[in-house]
Amino acid sequence: MKRTRFRAIALALVATVVVAAAIVASAAARTHATTITYWNTMNDEETVTVKSLISQFTSQTGINVEIVQVPFDQRDAKFTTASQAGKGPDVMRAEIADVANWGSKGFLSDITAKVTAKDKADFLPAAFAYYNYAGKVWGLPQAPDALTIFYNKALFKKAGIKPTALPKTLPALSQTCAKFPAKQGIFLRADSYWVQPWVWGYGGGLINPATKQILIANKQSVAGMDAYKSLFSAKCAFPNKDFSNDYGNAQTAFKNGQVAMIVNGPWSTADILQGPAFKSSSNLGVLVIPKGPGGKQGSPVGGNGFVIGKGTSDFEASWKFISFMTSGTAQAAFAAKNNLLPSRKSSYALPAVKSNRLIGAFLPQMNVATARPVLPQGGQIYSDFGPNVQKILNGQATAKSGLATVAAAWKLKLFPDYTIVK
Amino acid sequence: MTTTDKTLPAPGLRGRGGPSLGERLRRSFGRWWFAYAMLLPVFVVMGLLVFYPLGRGIYYSFTNADQYNALNPLQPSTYKWIGIDNYTRILKSQEFRDVLGFTAIWTFVNVFFHFTLGLALALALNRTLKFRGTYRMLLLVPWAVPSFISAFAWRFMFNNPYGFLDQFLIKLGWETPPAFLGDPTWAKFAVITTNVWLGVPFMMVALLGGLQAIDSDLLDAAAVDGANAWQRFWSVTLPGLRPVAATVILLGLIWTFNMFNVIYLVTGGGPGTSTQILATYAYQNAFDFKLYGVATAYGVIILSILLVFSQFYRYTVKRMGEETWS
């Protein structure tokens, strides 16, 4: 009995000492160096690059960066919830549509005074535009991107398609697909972002802020959706029957050489080039998404950049970090390892960028890509769009009824003062 | 509390002409202040953690709160009271009926299989056999693994065409196996299968406990009286299991009704909205659409349905308690 009591007291003492030591140690650690948190939304291959850049940054500046991985598709939900509770990160990686959304709600730090005229002139206007909202600058662009078509050159040769006979229009793309054996032509995703090249290519649209119109349910949008659906369910298309895993499945099928074409962006190339079908990287071809029958080109401009949270504990350190992450050094690293397009004009003169064949091949796609409206609701339109695209593609709804549902939901939730164009 | 104090009349049993209300309260407080003081911390904590958020949630459900007008510490709140508009909008909508319908299917099908499979396994284990401990341990694995890991494992197995199930069915000669996660009906099958797998071990353990509490003399006596195995099961084992079974079934109904992770991680409510249940749909309204008023209204609807369940649960427990004591 006595012994147990002695043990208990000893244990309590030890525990107290340990806790006290831990508190002292953490307090000591905190006084030594600045630490900022950074929420990263990059994919695995990009994250490898970002981690090596961060260690470079820390050794240069002495600022520690705590990296927190946030799934790309949950970034808005997580960042909004954390910011509402006053617990947002110092630095966040934002998709272009997020900037106006978060900026309008006051979640971001205004960096207008920090951006020099030289920087403003150096950033590509198409990329930098998204970081300006309500007359202020809210962040810096890292890498602009656009969806494009990747193709397997060897499979094209095998199917007898000459490099000069690549499809120039969306209907021609369907015919090209039909030249491949069943299931081996193209892998299309059941995702709202991925159907946009067709919706826009056929002359449709999402919304028009200038005229306050919702365009997603108009005739051209429906025609584009129908065209997408007919290619999606064509015999030459890889049967996409698992929508929640279809990003990974498309990559797998393409990497293994099971399918000749996929639609994806520059960020995915580092992963693709690890696949057995691309042991020789020159086998990867880049094809600008073809125009619709009316001559319209519709790949959506996308991209990511860095913003500073309103509640940042150290604005200066955060600013240094986002400047570094959008510097020529960082862009050269992302170009060399991930084939990401730089957001600075000056970076295109860097050897790592200049010599990159894939970046050169993306540029024609970037030049014709369609800008998305800079609107607070810009990113949230996909919440209702996505499930309805799935319903259309698996036959639970027609293109017309599904897109009408999207239009009604947008009017109800996001754009009450807009009119729906039929 | 069966002891009654003779000096103080029990509340409610007092005749006319007793002390006034104020006097009674004062006396009661003088007598019980210590108990109230002891309870105070609990009341405070419960108030802060349960009742205040609950009250706020119910209040929001009567407003048009959304991302632009509410819950932003950096901007003034401008949301306003809109009465029961959120509720009428939800109750009238087709999507609510769809979601409610699948929630009902989800809950009852899951609990049915949890119970029947759990009972079968419990019966199999409730006898002396070699390596009983090993079997029991193995059968508990689904319960011991964190549910999100199991959910991801199932999602990979259901993957079409690279998942295990798909490849396996092709090996068996089925040329085009069903789209487990892409077809609305098969997706329902997929999430229910996952959750059945997750939930059976708990039922098995609970029912095994119940089975071991049944007096084996009763079974022996029945055997001596000439009852066959089925009759012994039906007339001795099942009635003996009733107290445990009723409790675990009702708890299972409540848990399954609110089971969020499996749906969210396996299908995300898709394809379309075909596997949304009320809990995931409320989440989607709150965090994707950021319609806080609508989402809290869904929360209140979920709460009301669960209140019915729990009232039923209390009633059952009370009835069983009376049976036990009488």
Description:
The complex is a heterodimer of chains A (about 425) and B (about 325). Helices cover about 45% and strands about 15% of the residues of chain A. In chain A, helix 9 packs across helix 10. The longest helix of chain A has about 30 residues. Chain B has two domains: about 70 residues, no CATH class; about 200 residues, MetI-like fold (Orthogonal Bundle). Chain B is about 70% helix and about 0% strand. Classes of the chains: A alpha/beta (about 425), B mainly alpha (about 325).
Low-confidence stretches of chain A: none
CATH homologous superfamily title of the largest domain in chain A:
Periplasmic binding protein-like II
Instruction: Note the total helix count of chain B.
Output: 12
Helicity of chain B, as a percent range: over 70%
Q: Sketch the topology of chain B as an H/E string, one letter per element.
A: HHHHHHHHHHHH
C-alpha Rg of chain B, in Å? 26 Å
Structural class of chain A: alpha/beta
Gyration radius over CA of chain A:
24 Å
Number of strands of chain A: 14
Question: Tell me, what is the CATH class of the largest domain in chain A?
Answer: Alpha Beta
Mean pLDDT of chain B: 86
- Kindly estimate the percentage of residues of chain B that lie in beta strands according to DSSP: under 5%
Taken from the alpha-carbon principal axes, the silhouette of chain B is flat
Q: Low-confidence runs of chain B (pLDDT<50, min 5 residues)?
A: 1-6
Give the total of domains of chain B. Answer: 2
Sketch the major β-sheet of chain A.
5 strands, mixed
Give the CATH architecture of the largest domain in chain A.
3-Layer(aba) Sandwich
